[in-house]
Amino acid sequence: MKYGVAIFPSKKLQDLANSYRKRYDTKYAFIPPHITLKQTFEATDMEISTVAERLKDIAKKFQPFKLNVTKAKSFQPVSNTIYFKVELSEELQELHVALHDEKFCKSESEHAFVPHITIAQDLSDNEHSDVLGQLSMLDVSHEEEVKRIHLLYQLEDGAWTVYETFRLGAE
Amino acid sequence: MKYGVAIFPSKKLQDLANSYRKRYDTKYAFIPPHITLKQTFEATDMEISTVAERLKDIAKKFQPFKLNVTKAKSFQPVSNTIYFKVELSEELQELHVALHDEKFCKSESEHAFVPHITIAQDLSDNEHSDVLGQLSMLDVSHEEEVKRIHLLYQLEDGAWTVYETFRLGAE
């Protein structure tokens, strides 16, 4: 089964992201607005309870931390994906490292961690320019506190369901 | 903000439900297949942490329990909603009672609890007959274990995000 780890930001930020995603994100219906901490990885039904326990332990070691969204950006020329840029804080970096340590669970090495909330993807070049143009003029700066992380799994149709959430710093 | 409490069944059952929901459920994109334990209720940002604490306490008092899906049924003549019927076990009944006790959080009285997984809604009468006819011939009997319950909140576009999950019987 396919799993992933993500942060769901506040309703306020999700509502803002969804006002764009509704029109511009082909994955809109598959998952609420989120910040991916660990990309899709495979685990069996047996393995996942161990993974969940380890994730619980990792979450315990972190305290709730501030998350800052600064502006809308694009992954061009790599892809036409537009996103809200999330500041790479020390805590996000450490969380990312902990989730990619082999003590947590094996996973492919990946690109540098660029924390973000996707708001548009699979756009044509014209759409991409239009949407990015609109969004560049928008002040999306926003700060909030991250209190929990989510372990999710993917259904056959591509949609994601939450398996379990873990409070940061919880006893 | 609008909150609700639900059980997400196993991936296997969700995949089966979604194979129908994709075509026949207008709320398909808003939430994965689920069993509602407590209908939408209002809570402020302040109240919800207390609600979450109480839900954690309630979850602790229950042990994981068996969930049985028996067949596809319809809410007609009340509505054209088709669902997988979930057997009303003692545990489900007690969980439902605990979530509607005023010690948990105030909520409107509602109809008798008919645990179910919606697979089709807002169908025309013809579609309803067709789909129900197809599904009646299908053996959907299924048993699994419920290990956790989910507290969700609703975004402005109608979609639901998981706020937190609670393990049944957890320390």
UniProtKB/TrEMBL annotation, chains A, B:
The active site is at residues 34, 116. It comes from the Bacteria. GO terms for molecular function: hydrolase activity, acting on ester bonds. A motif (HXTX 1) lies at residues 34-37. Keywords: Hydrolase. Its EC number is 3.1.-.-. It holds the Pfam family 2_5_RNA_ligase2. A motif (HXTX 2) lies at residues 116-119. Gene3D superfamilies: Cyclic phosphodiesterase. PANTHER family: PHOSPHOESTERASE SAOUHSC_00951-RELATED, PHOSPHOESTERASE YJCG-RELATED. Belongs to the 2H phosphoesterase superfamily. YjcG family. NCBIfam families: PRK13679.1 (NF010223). This is Putative phosphoesterase CN689_03000. It comes from Peribacillus butanolivorans.
